[in-house]
C-alpha cells in the first residue's frame, strides 16, 4: 500500500465499502504550520465475477486478480499446491473471465489467452496431455468466452468459432464422435455463448438460436427426446442466455421469460412438479440472469431479487432450511450475479460476496469447513457478525 512512483498519484487499498471510493487529501500539521496534500484517489477492490465448481470456488476482482478456495486435490485452485483452502487465496492477475468444472478451472486473461489447471483425466484442460496440473497452463489464444462441464471444456474464440475438449462419451463435445480429445477440437461457427453441464453442452448462436448436444437421458437437451446426440441439435429461437446444471438446462429468452428442461427429481426446473421434461417449459417471467447448480437453480429477476429452487440438502438455496423446493423461493434482494454447484455464490450490487451450501472443503471461503450453511454468509468483506 504505497503511492506509485512518477506517473500516477493513486493509492490502491482493500476497503470495506464501495462508497469508500473517491478522492482524499491528507492534512499534516505541527507547531510549524499545516500542509494539505494533493488529492489522491482511493480504489475499492471488490469481486465482479464468480464461478462455482463441484467443491471449489473462483472469485475475480475488479483489479483483474483471481482468487480461489475449496478443494484442491487435483490442483484446481491453481496455486501450485494440492492443499485445500478455506479462505480465498490469490492465484494470478490480469484475468478477464473464469469457469469452474467438476475438478478443473479455466482462466481467460485480458490478452485473450486461455489458461487451465486441475484434473485432466479426460483431457479437459486441452493441453495435449492427460496429466493434472496445479498451476495454470497456457492453452490457446484469441479466446472470448469459456465454459467448464464435469470433465469437458467449451471454448469460444474471438471469431465466433466454438472449440471443445475433454470427455466425450455422450457426445457432449459435439464433434460427431464419442471419443475424448485432449486438445481443443473445432465444432461450429457463429457462436455467441456457451454453457456446459455434467455431460451435455448448450450453444447459443449469434442469431439467437439454441443448439444442444451430449447426454439426454432426462431430456436436458430439450429436443423432445431422451436420445443422446453427438452433433449439436437445434432446440429453439429467440434465446438470450443459457445455463446448464448436472442434468438440467435453463433457457432465458429475449423477452425475459425463463424456460427449463431435463432432470427434475428435486424440483430444480421450478415448475411445481418433480417430473423431468424433455422439452423446455415456461417457468417465470421478468428474469435477468440464471445459474444452474448441480441439482438446483438460481434465478435473478429484473428487480435484483434472487429466487432459488431444487435440491437443498446442503442449504444451497439459502432460504434458511434444507427442504427441497419445486417452485422458486425468494432469497434476497440487491443481487448482481450468481453461481452454483452443491453450493451457491451470490454477488450483490454493493460488491459484497455471499455464499451458502456445501462447505466440506472450505469452498464457501468463510474460513471454516462447517457444512450445510443454509443462510448466505458474507465472505467479502468478511463478516464481523458474531
What does this entry look like structurally?
There is one protein chain. With 386 residues, the chain is mostly beta strands. 0% of the residues lie in helices and 51% in strands. Strands 6-7-8-9 form a four-stranded antiparallel β-sheet, with no helix packed on it. A four-stranded antiparallel β-sheet has the order 10-11-12-13, with no helix packed on it. The chain is globular, with a radius of gyration of 22 Å. The two termini are 29 Å apart.
Mean pLDDT: 94
Low-confidence stretches: 1-7
Largest sheet: 4 strands, antiparallel
Determine the structural class based on helices, strands and strand pairing: mainly beta
- Count of runs of 4 or more consecutive helical residues: 0
DSSP helix fraction:
under 10%
Alpha carbon gyration radius: 22 Å
What is the overall silhouette? Answer: globular
What is the strand content? over 45%
Distance between the termini: 29 Å
Lateral strand order in the biggest sheet: 6-7-8-9
Number of strands: 33
Q: What features would you highlight for this structure?
A:
globular; four-stranded antiparallel sheet; mainly beta; single chain; 386 residues
Task: Explain briefly what this protein structure is.
The chain is an all-beta fold and 386 residues long. 0% of the residues lie in helices and 51% in strands.
List the helices and strands and how they pair.
Elements (H helix, E strand, L loop, with lengths): L9 E4 L8 E3 L2 E4 L2 E4 L3 E5 L2 E6 L3 E6 L4 E5 L14 E8 L2 E6 L3 E6 L4 E5 L14 E8 L2 E6 L3 E6 L4 E5 L14 E8 L2 E6 L3 E6 L4 E5 L14 E8 L2 E6 L3 E6 L4 E5 L14 E8 L2 E6 L3 E6 L4 E5 L14 E8 L2 E6 L2 E6 L4 E5 L15 E8 L6
Parallel strand pairs: 1-5
Antiparallel strand pairs: 2-5, 3-4, 6-7, 7-8, 8-9, 10-11, 11-12, 12-13, 14-15, 15-16, 16-17, 18-19, 19-20, 20-21, 22-23, 23-24, 24-25, 26-27, 27-28, 28-29, 30-31, 31-32, 32-33
Amino acid at each position: 500500500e504505497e503511492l506509485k512512483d512518477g506517473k500516477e498519484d493513486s493509492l490502491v487499498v482493500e476497503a470495506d465499502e464501495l462508497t469508500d471510493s473517491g478522492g482524499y487529501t491528507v492534512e499534516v500539521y505541527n507547531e510549524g504550520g499545516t500542509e494539505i496534500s494533493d488529492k489522491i484517489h482511493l480504489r475499492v477492490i471488490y469481486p465482479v465475477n464468480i464461478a462455482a465448481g463441484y467443491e471449489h470456488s473462483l472469485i475475480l476482482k475488479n483489479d483483474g486478480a483471481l482468487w480461489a478456495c475449496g478443494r484442491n486435490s487435483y490442483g484446481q485452485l491453481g496455486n501450485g499446491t494440492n492443499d485445500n483452502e478455506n479462505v480465498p487465496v490469490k492465484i494470478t492477475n490480469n484475468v478477464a473471465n473464469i469457469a469452474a468444472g467438476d475438478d478443473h478451472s479455466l482462466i481467460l486473461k485480458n490478452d485473450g489467452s486461455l489458461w487451465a489447471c486441475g484434473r485432466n483425466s479426460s483431457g479437459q484442460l486441452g493441453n495435449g496431455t492427460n496429466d493434472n496440473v496445479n498451476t495454470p497452463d497456457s492453452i490457446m489464444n484469441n479466446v472470448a468466452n469459456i465454459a467448464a462441464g464435469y470433465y469437458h471444456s467449451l471454448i469460444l474464440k474471438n471469431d465466433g468459432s466454438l472449440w471443445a475438449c475433454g470427455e466425450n462419451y455422450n457426445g457432449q463435445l459435439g464433434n460427431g464422435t464419442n471419443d475424448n480429445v485432449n486438445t481443443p477440437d473445432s465444432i461450429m461457427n457463429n457462436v455467441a455463448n456457451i454453457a456446459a453441464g455434467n455431460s451435455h453442452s448448450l450453444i447459443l448462436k449469434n442469431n439467437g438460436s439454441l443448439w444442444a448436444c451430449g447426454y439426454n437421458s432426462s431430456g436436458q437437451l430439450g429436443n423432445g427426446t431422451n436420445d443422446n446426440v453427438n452433433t449439436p441439435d437445434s432446440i429453439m429461437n429467440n434465446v438470450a442466455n443459457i445455463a446448464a446444471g448436472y442434468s438440467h438446462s435453463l433457457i432465458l429468452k429475449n423477452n425475459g421469460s425463463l424456460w427449463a428442461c431435463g432432470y427434475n427429481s428435486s424440483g430444480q426446473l421450478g415448475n411445481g412438479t418433480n417430473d423431468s421434461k424433455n422439452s423446455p417449459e415456461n417457468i417465470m417471467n421478468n428474469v435477468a440472469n440464471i445459474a444452474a447448480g448441480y441439482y438446483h437453480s438460481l434465478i435473478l429477476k429484473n428487480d435484483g431479487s434472487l429466487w432459488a429452487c431444487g435440491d437443498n440438502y446442503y442449504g444451497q438455496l439459502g432460504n434458511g432450511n434444507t427442504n427441497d423446493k419445486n417452485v422458486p423461493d425468494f432469497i434476497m434482494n440487491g443481487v448482481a450475479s450468481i453461481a452454483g454447484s452443491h453450493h451457491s455464490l451470490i454477488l450483490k450490487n454493493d460488491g459484497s460476496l455471499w455464499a451458502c451450501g456445501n462447505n466440506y472443503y472450505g469452498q464457501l471461503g468463510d474460513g471454516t469447513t462447517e457444512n450445510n450453511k443454509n443462510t448466505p454468509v458474507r465472505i467479502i468483506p468478511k463478516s464481523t457478525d458474531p
